[in-house]
Specification:
Elements (H helix, E strand, L loop, with lengths): L1 E8 L6 H12 L3 E8 L8 H8 L1 E3 L4 H15 L1 H15 L5 H22 L3 E5 L3 H11 L5 E5 L3 H4 L6 H7 L2 E4 L2 H10 L8 E3 L6 H5 L10 E5 L8 H13 L5 E5 L5 H10 L6 E5 L3 H9 L3 E4 L8 H8 L4 E4 L14 E4 L4 H13 L2 H18 L2 H21 L1
Parallel strand pairs: 1-2, 1-4, 2-3, 4-5, 5-6, 6-7, 8-9, 8-11, 9-10, 11-12, 12-13
Length: 406
């Protein structure tokens, strides 16, 4: 089958799981055309992402003139379909948080997507995230383009499902993918009852390199790591409060913080204000090799999120035999069981987080290794990239066959 993958911006450092999914489909013998609506992230520390950027086309590469040309071509070649798609765009845009003007731009992007799909003889489009990519796919379908599916990760889609027209996108898609049982339940909340059977679970996979080699021994050093965007969803200020509590208790520790984001300056300022510079080090945006090295140099990963889908970094940590300290929210308890693969604490509770961090710091490396081994087994069972790609491909083939025989 020939796929077209559509993402708003691809590749970026936080979307390595999409790259793994694409490559797994290619390992299965399918062909995948990579398309990013916006140009790829210009600052890619990971060489795999840089190589992926070379394979990726951008719909907005030629800017507004390119979109206008695509609209004019659609006017000349498919005026009736364009009129129907224009009505759909207006209906979806009216009252949405994006407005009518942006939906007109989405329509132009859909015109470009249809032409590209025709040139590449695409059988099926798959989009990631429930924001604008599946909307562009839905408009492209009205224009005569191929059918599509899309993966919803959360938490953004679950925060504003009505504004994002999630119900309408699910209705338009051949099928919709959730990455966890929790995610599927959230989609069931917002879709029509007749569309519930079209919501499937396909879990994110980890890079085979994280599972192929045996984990290195867990360090005796009192070191923990945080890996993720420094944004509101990841609650870095709760992490800093927990670090302050450990320091006040006289607990020896070091905390490596990997990632950047809109709260980076605020988080660094908190560490300076509370005298945590000797304990907390910030590394900014890093590549996959640095992520792996940080995990292997730590006793455990700490992720005190407020809102999530199911973070891939938890899978990566467990795959490298490191237990995790995280919050009991969203799809996380489907992977992490409290006291078995790590510690689950209430979201927003800095005292509970500090206690879990203190326990991990005081635990014998052999006990941490047992937790990590259980986590590694669960990741191998639930998050194998090739197995999940096979699942996704099976759903797509069935949908294409059903549509062609209808």
């Amino acid at each position: 089958m020939r796929w077209l993958y559509l993402v708003n911006r691809y590749p970026t450092p936080s979307h390595a799981f999409i790259r793994r999914e694409i490559r797994a489909l290619e390992e299965l013998g399918d062909e995948v055309v990579r398309v990013s609506i916006q140009p790829s992230d210009p600052d890619l520390p990971d060489p795999d992402d840089r190589a992926e950027a070379e394979l990726t086309r951008s719909i907005l590469e030629d800017g507004a003139p390119g979109l206008i040309a695509e609209l004019l071509f659609a006017v000349a070649t498919r005026p009736l379909r364009l009129l129907g798609a224009l009505c759909s765009a207006a209906k979806l845009g009216f009252g949405s948080d994006r407005g009518l003007l942006l939906h007109a731009a989405y329509l132009a992007e859909a015109c470009a997507l249809v032409r590209l799909s025709e040139r590449e003889q695409i059988d099926h489009i798959h989009a990631h995230f429930g924001t604008n990519p599946p909307l562009v796919c839905a408009l492209a379908k009205r224009l005569g383009g191929p059918g599509f599916s899309f993966t919803v990760h959360g938490p953004e889609e679950f925060d504003r499902p009505i504004a994002l027209r999630l119900r309408e996108k699910i209705r338009a898609a051949r099928f919709t993918v959730a990455i966890s049982s929790f995610g599927r339940g959230q989609l069931w909340r917002w879709c029509d009852h007749e569309d519930r059977s079209s919501v499937e679970i396909v879990r994110c996979g980890v890079d085979a390199a994280f599972l192929e080699e045996e984990p290195s021994p867990i360090t005796e050093e009192a070191r923990l790591t945080f890996i993720g965007r420094l944004c509101h969803q990841k609650a870095p200020w709760v992490l800093m409060q927990a670090a302050r509590l450990l320091k006040e208790e006289g607990v020896p520790f070091s905390l490596e913080v990997l990632g950047d984001g809109e709260l980076e300056a605020e988080t660094r300022a908190f560490a300076r204000t509370h005298g945590l510079e000797a304990n907390v080090s910030f590394h900014g945006r890093v590549g996959a090799q640095e992520v792996r090295a940080a995990l292997e140099g730590a006793r455990a990963l700490v992720l005190p999120s407020f809102a999530e889908g199911l973070p891939v970094v938890l899978m990566e940590s467990l795959a490298r035999g490191r237990p995790v300290i995280t919050t009991s929210i969203a799809g996380i308890p489907e992977l992490v069981r409290d006291g078995k693969e790590g510690w689950l604490v209430p979201s927003g509770d800095a005292y509970a987080l500090a206690e879990a961090m203190k326990t991990a710091l005081a635990s014998a490396p052999s006990d941490l290794a047992k937790m990590g081994a259980r986590g590694r087994a669960r990741v191998r069972e639930q998050h194998d990239s090739l197995k999940e790609a096979e699942r996704l491909a099976a759903h797509a083939r069935r949908a294409v066959e059903e549509e062609s025989s209808a």
